[in-house]
Design brief:
alpha+beta, Nucleotidyltransferase, domain 5, 4 domains, five-stranded mixed β-sheet, 18 strands, 38% helix, 29% strand, globular
Length: 423
C-alpha cells in the first residue's frame, strides 16, 4: 500500500501542513483519493527560510508522526514546497539536432533539448529548481506544445528556469532528511497550488495564483497553458498583524485575534463611530488589564487596508515586469492563510484591475473538508503534482527538468551526513 501513497509537505513560517493521497485502481482506471490532512505549528522557519535546523526538524517530525497515526501507513517519501525569497526566474533556449535518421522526434530528443536549455550561466550561490518547457519549435514551425512523434531536422525548446539560493535549499533539505524521510522533489509553492486551483482553460486564457502566507507572498502567472513568471515577495499576513499591534498598542497575539474576528480590508464599510468591545478577547489572551477595551472598526480596517494595498502593489509590479498588469482574463486566485481576510478580494480587484476570487480545490476529489481550506491548497497541490509526475507520459510535457537532478547531486552528501546523526 505504501507504494501508492503520495504525500505533500508544505513548510510555512507559522504552520507545517501535510496532505496524504492514495492511488486507487478501479474500473475507471487509477484515481487519487485524499486520505488525510494534518498541521502542526512551525518552529525554526522565518520568512520561508530555515533559521534553526533543529527546530525545523522537530516541527517536520511532529507533522510526520501525526500524519502516520492518522492514515496508519508509514510515509517514506514526500513532495516538498519551497517558498523562499530571492527566487530568480529566467528564460532559456535549447537547440538540438533530431537523432533518428527519419527525422521523427522522440522523448530522448526532447530531453536533450531541455538539458541544452539548462546549460545557462547560474550564479555560484544559486541552483536550478525547475526547468519548465514553455513551447517548442521544429525547423521553422513554432508554438508547438508536444513535439513527440512529429518530424523535423532541428528541435528548439523555450524554457523558464527557476533558481533558488543554494544555502536556503540545502538548509531546508537537511532539516527534512534528518527526520529520515526521502524528498521526491522540491516544488515552488504557487506552482504546486495551481495544480488544484486553476483549470487548464484558465491557464490558457491567462491567470495568476497568489499565495499569501504569514511572512511571504508568492506568485505564479500562467498564459497559453504554460508558466509565464514566478516570484516570492518578502511580505505577508503577519505584517498586517504587526501593524495592528503597533496601531492599537496591544500584544501581538491579541492583534491576531482582532484581525481575524473584526478585521476587514474595506474601512468605508464602517461608520467612524462604530466600535467593538475587545475586553473578552483580551481576557482570553491573558491581557485583560489593558486600558483600551473599545476600538473603532473603521480604524482597524484602515490599518489593514494600507498593508493589503502594499502587498497587491508589489504583486502588480511583478505583473508589470512581464507586461501583464491588468491583462489576465481568467483573473487571480488568492490562496494561503492570509487569503481568508474579510474583503481581501475586493481590494485585489481594485488594485490589480483583474477578476479575483479566493482559490478553491477544483481538480481533486476529497471527502476531507479540511483540504479545501485555502491554507491547505499548496499541500494538496503537491499531492496532485506528485501524482502527475508519476505518470511517464506526463513527465516530459508538464514537469520536465524540475529540481530532481540538481537536488540529487546537491544534497546527496547532506543526506548521508544526516543519517549518521540519527539514533
Amino acid at each position: 500500500m505504501k507504494e501508492n501513497i503520495v504525500a505533500g509537505l508544505d513548510i510555512g513560517s507559522t504552520a507545517t501542513r501535510m496532505v496524504i493521497g492514495q492511488r486507487v485502481i478501479n474500473d475507471n482506471g487509477e484515481n487519487l483519493h485524499i486520505i488525510g490532512a494534518v498541521n502542526v505549528p512551525s518552529e525554526g522557519i522565518n520568512r520561508g527560510v530555515v533559521n534553526s535546523i533543529e527546530n525545523a526538524t522537530s516541527s517536520i517530525s511532529a507533522c510526520l508522526e501525526k500524519a502516520e497515526r492518522l492514515v496508519g501507513v508509514p510515509i517514506n517519501k514526500v513532495w516538498v514546497s519551497i517558498n523562499v525569497p530571492h527566487i530568480k526566474c529566467e528564460k532559456s533556449r535549447g537547440v538540438v539536432a533530431i537523432g533518428k535518421s527519419d527525422g521523427e522526434i522522440t522523448e530522448d530528443d526532447v530531453e536533450r533539448a531541455i538539458e541544452a536549455a539548462r546549460a545557462l550561466s547560474v550564479p555560484p550561490n544559486y541552483e536550478i529548481l525547475h526547468v519548465i518547457p514553455v513551447k517548442y519549435t521544429i525547423d521553422n514551425q513554432g508554438d508547438i506544445k508536444d513535439p513527440i512523434g512529429m518530424t523535423g531536422v532541428r528541435l528548439e525548446v523555450e524554457t523558464i528556469i527557476i533558481q533558488g539560493l543554494s544555502s536556503q535549499i540545502n538548509n531546508l533539505t537537511k532539516a527534512i532528511y534528518r527526520t529520515g524521510i526521502e524528498i521526491e522533489d522540491l516544488v515552488l509553492s504557487p506552482l504546486a497550488a495551481a495544480e488544484t486551483v486553476v483549470t487548464n482553460k484558465q491557464k490558457e486564457l491567462g491567470a495568476a495564483v497568489i499565495n499569501i502566507g504569514a511572512a511571504t507572498t508568492s506568485l505564479a502567472v500562467f498564459e497559453e497553458g504554460e508558466l509565464l513568471h514566478a516570484a516570492v515577495l518578502p511580505i505577508g499576513s503577519e505584517h498586517i498583524t504587526a501593524d495592528i499591534a503597533i496601531g492599537l498598542r496591544c500584544p501581538i497575539n491579541l492583534a491576531e485575534r482582532i484581525k481575524l474576528e473584526y478585521g476587514s480590508a474595506k474601512p468605508e464599510k464602517f461608520d467612524k463611530r462604530e466600535e467593538v468591545d475587545i475586553s473578552q478577547l483580551a481576557e482570553e489572551e491573558g491581557v485583560a488589564d489593558e486600558e483600551v477595551n473599545k476600538i473603532s472598526r473603521s480604524y482597524i480596517s484602515e490599518i489593514i487596508e494600507a498593508r493589503v494595498e502594499e502587498i497587491f502593489e508589489k504583486v502588480d509590479d511583478e505583473l508589470k515586469k512581464i507586461e501583464r498588469s491588468g491583462m489576465l482574463p481568467a483573473g487571480v486566485f488568492l490562496i494561503g492563510g492570509g487569503a481568508q481576510l474579510t474583503d481581501l478580494v475586493e481590494v485585489a480587484k481594485a488594485k490589480l484591475r483583474l477578476p479575483a476570487c479566493v482559490g478553491t480545490n477544483k481538480n481533486l476529489s476529497a471527502i476531507i473538508d479540511k483540504v479545501n481550506d485555502p491554507a491547505y491548497l499548496t499541500a494538496l497541490g503537491l499531492v496532485a503534482w506528485g501524482n502527475q509526475s508519476a505518470k511517464p507520459q506526463k513527465r516530459l510535457t508538464l514537469f520536465a527538468g524540475s529540481a530532481k537532478n540538481s537536488l540529487d547531486t546537491a544534497v546527496g552528501l547532506v543526506k548521508n551526513w544526516a543519517k549518521k546523526l540519527m539514533p
